[in-house]
Specification:
The protein has 7 helices and no strands. It is mostly helical and about 100 residues long. The longest helix has 19 residues, at about 45-65.
Length: about 100
C-alpha cells in the first residue's frame, strides 16, 4: 500500500523528512504519478506527513522528558513556535497541555 510505504519512509527519516518530490523519487515514481495515486486514495503527502509528525510528537511527549524544543526538531520543525501552532491544530490542545493530561 502506497500510504504505508510513505509512512515508513517518513518514520525512517526522523528529523529530516523528505519533501514530496524526494518522496516520489524514493518510491520510484514521478511526482505527478505520486500526487495522483495519493489523490485516488483521498489523501495527500502533507496529510500523511502531519499524521506521522503528530504520532511521533505525541509519543515523545508521553514517554520521554525531551523538551518541546527538542521534540519540535525531531519532528522536522525549524521553529518551535510553528510546531506549537501545528500541534494545537492537529490535536486541539497545546503540547504542554497534552503532556500534563498524559501524565495524570
Amino acid at each position: 500500500e502506497l500510504v504505508e510505504k510513505v509512512r515508513r519512509v517518513l518514520i525512517d527519516s526522523l528529523g529530516h523528512f523528505p519533501n514530496s518530490s524526494e518522496m516520489a523519487r524514493k518510491l520510484g515514481v514521478s511526482s505527478s504519478s505520486f500526487y495522483r495515486q495519493l489523490k485516488d486514495r483521498n489523501t495527500s503527502f502533507q496529510k500523511i506527513l502531519d499524521e506521522v509528525r503528530t504520532e511521533i510528537a505525541m509519543k515523545y511527549l508521553a514517554k520521554t522528558n525531551l523538551t518541546i524544543d527538542q521534540i519540535s526538531d525531531l519532528v522536522g520543525f525549524s521553529e518551535t513556535t510553528t510546531f506549537r501552532r501545528a500541534f494545537k491544530k492537529w490535536t486541539g490542545q497545546t503540547a504542554s497541555e497534552f503532556r500534563k493530561t498524559i501524565s495524570l
